[in-house]
């Protein structure tokens, strides 16, 4: 048990400063855009200005004669080189048993363009300026077609159709849960509460825009792609195997320092394939760096659901059944995880922390003339939590019940774990009541009426809102994921290389792009092997250095990768015990390893970790007859279950009655993350996640123009990122239960802030306005939207 | 960004000569021009940097008039004791433009010449009844702003400064775009020798005055004098942040807050 290990100043539970921050804070990070290769050229994409158009002739002559231009490549060139389309990593199955519609996704458009930003040509030149200049004069003949950007419009019978093979723009009509049981429960229910809502479309906007550099080395017939990716091995697999047909051993993918991902960089993008293909074709290194405005129309977007939800209740407020119907926007093509997010990562979360016995969820995945939609921090789980936690408040309001009382009435109690939900997943551990009670205490929920009165005296509406939540992280047992449509495994790998001096290099299949893995994983090694973190380096992001990995997303790095690391450390310890037993002439079972020392139990005979490391490489006194020299071990870990972090978030807001402006005045989060490796990093993950969720709730909205299909919020002038001055000082703490199936008891914490906050903030806003009879406000709760709902609510009163 | 020639003239006559050239454009702090060039929405053969021209510098107050050189940055206006001692509402306005980076680069003259419909300064210039001084003449504020990004400036004409009559009271209130932090609606109210003037920025294609509010405030310079008063939504801007009727509503709210600020 970890609890029995001696205290280690750099081990598990220590809030040490992040090892990587010295590099980042002193400007020594090494990002893809920083790369310079010999003879490097520069590429620029020509992108469609139209949402939907037939693609006519592409006249590249004017571009080719721009001085310095080396190539102007189009979809026809890709086809001639037999380059494959961009694959989707998940294939889901509809309720009719049929596979989803999976239209071809050429890396450069062929025949048609399907969204503003769809790439139609790639210009390569000696300089970035020449490439841009040439891109401006590529003449593309577009025959503009009617477009559709909104899912409600896209499923209408007369809607423009993106793909002939997907009538009605339907990619898949999917369901989960027991429809008959739900129907029966609704038929006999004392009360039914209903809610229609929109989950607004978001643009991830990591600080570092995407970029790629590719190079071909004919000497070894080796291709290298440096890319801003959260999962370089998966890019190697998808791009090498399906798109460019490069054998895996001839393709190296490197994701060096990456400045934020949030999901945006966990997909295999067409640009990566085009840049690599162009570099091989030209025999020159090619660099592409996405501009911010280009990122808005080419980075996969997030969310974008339209949902109807209904809860059946008995007269005491007990939830009997939940019915959810969602239209999920896929955009113009299927991105890597696109169809998985609003289905497998959404419906199973609709149980939340409640005992609702019957749940049915149907999801129609719909093509529209918009940027492809895929995972964005939380990915399906914030959407599910928003539906559920808003609906619970509506239930309370309609039954005249207290919002806390109705939650308490339906909450899974700590003694009920493991808890099997009606939507596939089985929660292993948790204490939602404990999280909620602690959050209520910190937020002084009981004292809220007085604060509301004080605000009213100032002429301000004040509201408080709570959202409980649970998330499923560390996806997932490969066997189950593949049954649900995953086209790859979801294990993780770690290797520990102990050097002769006892210094350690750990090679991880996950990728850190802001999460602080170089510290967290080093702390795990420090704890397990008893070496200080200074003696541990964490390596990741290079397919030539790291054995394999599925990368970082879905809060999986610590729970899946960390477990692999722990298992690799266990192998090191076991081998070390064998060496030590030989040297100390003891039975292996009698040798224990504690705090960096091998000891014959009950004696003072010891060998230090450094001594054993040295003897593994200088095997003078070494059991060569039973052991190989050296000290390096590797472990792959395939999760046995999701992990289920959860918690309760409470937001308090004030609303300016005249302008509709919402000010977030208080935020409390009490979360169950399982074992905490570094409390400071956990708090940082929560802070960042909460701010992103508040951004969705209050200001972020990737608005498209319905007529033209243009992304109206296509720059920071119109797309409103959350800012520091929007946030109060957050109170973040953990209330942890141990995960039963990860080695260290960890559950993950990367997305929870984003999952709990949209509903907490929106519930607070609705609470503030409840005196006006307002029961729901869609996100983002912009001043204009709040003012409009206040106007609408007040009009009937004015008419009286 | 397309290639261009960069020139920094030593005096007004050299600046004028340079600006007479084909494709030349005046550069102040560059806070509006450079983003447009970078996005390749515009291209100019020559940028003529006016920001360091000596005649465009300086802040002074004499005989009830505050003079601010066109090359003065927003940060300098915000921090100026002379401005604070004469028209504190103008200092407050300058201190609320954009963000620190913009305030350290952007200039008064650049803002006025650009005439962005959501810029702050035009509201102050119009409400205070200021005169825009150029290398050729002095243009009254009422004649200066002509529409969307349109002013009375002739080709090559250079703003050298602005003469603001010091009012008895003035206040500015703005409702910022949550994204760009430009004014969705900004209202500047000034009570001067010639009566009260109310100017609105952000709401329409160009800054405009609200005579109805001016009459009400002439009668009683109180917040309550504006109760129920606003402008009709017809002709106002509408975008994803604020529909025209919301902007119309905000004109009333911000005008009342500007009066409150003036009386504070």
Automatic annotation (TrEMBL), chain A:
The keyword Nucleus does not apply. Signal peptide: none annotated. Pfam families: Ald_Xan_dh_C (PF01315), MoCoBD_1 (PF02738), MoCoBD_2 (PF20256). Keywords: Molybdenum, Oxidoreductase. InterPro entries: Ald_Oxase/Xan_DH_a/b (IPR000674), Ald_Oxase/Xan_DH_a/b_sf (IPR036856), Ald_Oxase/xanthine_DH-like (IPR016208), AldOxase/xan_DH_MoCoBD1 (IPR008274), AldOxase/xan_DH_MoCoBD2 (IPR046867), AldOxase/xan_DH_Mopterin-bd_sf (IPR037165). The keyword Ribosomal protein does not apply. Residues 26-146 form the Aldehyde oxidase/xanthine dehydrogenase a/b hammerhead domain. This is Carbon monoxide dehydrogenase/molybdopterin binding aldehyde oxidase. It comes from Acidisphaera rubrifaciens HS-AP3. The lineage of its organism: Bacteria, Pseudomonadati, Pseudomonadota, Alphaproteobacteria, Acetobacterales.
UniProtKB/TrEMBL annotation, chain B:
InterPro entries: CO_DH_flav_C (IPR005107), CO_DH_flav_C_dom_sf (IPR036683), Diverse_Substr_Oxidored (IPR051312), FAD-bd_PCMH (IPR016166), FAD-bd_PCMH-like_sf (IPR036318), FAD-bd_PCMH_sub1 (IPR016167), FAD-bd_PCMH_sub2 (IPR016169), Mopterin_DH_FAD-bd (IPR002346). It comes from the Bacteria. Residues 1-169 form the FAD-binding PCMH-type domain. The keyword rRNA processing does not apply. GO terms for molecular function: FAD binding; oxidoreductase activity. Keywords: FAD, Flavoprotein, Oxidoreductase. Pfam families: FAD_binding_5. The keyword Flavoprotein applies. PANTHER family: XANTHINE DEHYDROGENASE SUBUNIT C-RELATED (PTHR42659:SF2). This is Carbon monoxide dehydrogenase. It comes from Acidisphaera rubrifaciens HS-AP3.
